[in-house]
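[Solved] Which block belongs to which protein?

Original post:
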Amino acid sequence: MDLRGFFLLNIFAMAKDKKSFILYSDAIYTVEKLSDTDAGQLLKHLLRYVNDQNPTTDNPLVEIAFEPIKQQLKRDLVKFEDVKVKRSEAGKAGATKRWQDIANANKGIQTIANIAVNDNDNVNVISKDIYRSFAHLSISNADIEKLLDKYSINEIDEVLDSIENFKGNKKYTSLYLTANKWLSKNKKSTEVEEPKELLLARKLGLC
C-alpha cells in the first residue's frame, strides 16, 4: 500500500501524535483587522481544529480569517507526512544495510576461518616450547635443560650451529639425541687435550 496516498486521503485530520504546528507570522495582518473578541474566537477555533475537534463557527469574520490559516495547515501537513515517510524509508534502508554489512563481515570471518582450517597441513606452527628448529629438526626447552646438566649453553649453541650447517643433517631424526652425541664426542676429545681448569671455565661459559 502506498503510505503517501494513505496520508493524503486523511489530510483533513491532523497527524496522529503530532504535538505542534506552524502559525506563520504574516497572519498578523488578518488578525489585526479583527476585534479582540473576534481574535480570541479565532485562536480558540484554530486550537480546536489542530486538536481534531472539527470546530464550527457562526462568526463570519472568524470563518474568513481562519480559511487561509486552514489551507496552510493542510499544506504543512502534507509536507510533514511526506518527510515522515521518507525518514521511515531511509531508516529501514539504513537498518537493512547495517544488517547486510554485519552479515558480510561474518561471512568474511568464516571464510578466513575456513581457509585456516583447510590450509592447516601447510602451516608451520612455531611453539613457545621449542628452543630452536631448522630444516626438519627441532629441540625443545626441556631437552636443552637436560643438556645443561652436562654442558654450557655456549657449547650447546655451537653444536646446534654445527649440526645446522652440516650437509648430512637430513639423516638425523632427533636433534636432541644428535646434539647430545656430538657434545659427548667434543667433551671426550677436549678432556684429552685441555687441562681441567680450562674445561671448568668452558663449562661455566667463561670462554
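(Second protein starts here: sequence line, then its C-alpha cells.)
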Amino acid sequence: MKETTIQPYRPLELMIDPKITDFDCRDFIGIWDKFVPASFCDQLIEWYEHMYYKRSSQYDHEDQYQMISEQLEPFGSTYGEKDQDRFHKTISPGEIQYGSNLNRKDTSVMLNYCNDNITYQVNQFLKSCMMHYISEFGQLKQVSMFSSDIKMQKTEPEGGYHLWHYENSAGSHANRELVWMIYLNDVLPENGGETEFMYQRRRLNPTKGTVVIFPAGMTHVHRGNMVLDGDAKYILTGWYIKS
C-alpha cells in the first residue's frame, strides 16, 4: 500500500505573511481560504465513501465499490478493517441525534476514532491556523486549550443543521472556547449549504480546503443552511476545549 505523505504544520512566520497565506479575521471569524490541499480533501471524501459503501447493507453495486477502492490512496497502514470497524461504531444520522430532520439532517462519523494517520494530518493543518488565530487575538495566549474530536459530516441535498445555535450553550459543552471547520468540497453559491452567522449577518459559502475558526459563545450564533441541489456537502468540524 502506498502511504500518504504527512505535511508538517506551516510556521507562524509563513502564516502571517499575506503573500503566502490568504487570511481574513473580520468579526473574529478566522478564514484561511483553500488552505488544506485539494488532493487531501478529495482523499478524505473517497475514504468516507469507501467506508460507507463497505458498511451499507443497501449497497448492491460491487463494480462501483471496486472502482472506489482502486482509486482511493490509502492513509497508511491503519487503513482497512480497523478503520471499518471504528467507522461502523461511530457513524450517526443527525436526525436521530436531534430528534427530527426538521432540526438537523446529515450524517457524521468521529474520524479521530477511525484513523490515526488522518487525524494527525488534520491536526497539523489546524495547528497552523490556530497559532495564527491566537497571534491575531493575543488574549487567547492565556487560555490553555486542546482539540481532540474530529467530526466528518456529509450533508445531502435537502439536509442541513437548520437550527440557530451556538456551540457552548449546553452545560456539558461550557468549556468549548472555539469552533473550527474545514470545508472538503465546493458548493456552488446557488446550491446553498452556507454557514450563516446571525449577528454578523454573514454567510460563508463552502470552498474546498478552506479552514474557519470562530468563538463558541453566543456572539456567534450560526446554522448550516440547507443544501438545495447538486452534490453533497462534506466538512470536518470540532472544538478547542479549555483544559
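Accepted answer:
You had them paired correctly. Confirming on the second one: Confidence is low (pLDDT under 50) at residues 57-61, 67-79.
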